[in-house]
Amino acid sequence: MSKNFYGSICFTDLLEAAKQGHDGFAKSEKNGKIYANVTVWLNDEVDKYGNKLSIQVNEAKDSTDFKKFYIGNLKEGKDVTPKPLEGAVILSLPDTNDLPF
Fold this sequence. Notes:
mainly beta
């Protein structure tokens, strides 16, 4: 039986780590897109916020400069449409021309 999970990831942390050259990111030679190498795992117990899965960006196996870092969590349930923050403004995506790859 399939299960749905919903949650969020921190785009700000992802973008900042990519700009710093974190080795968990790679640019495809085929299509030029940037990918983040992640691990998603099912926790033994649901945490106090109801999260059942966690997500982190990996570092290269022989990395000494960078470490794994958490970017989000997921809950089990139906798809949830995010609610806009009160007073939030729509932001344009930041310029990514300063990425090191």
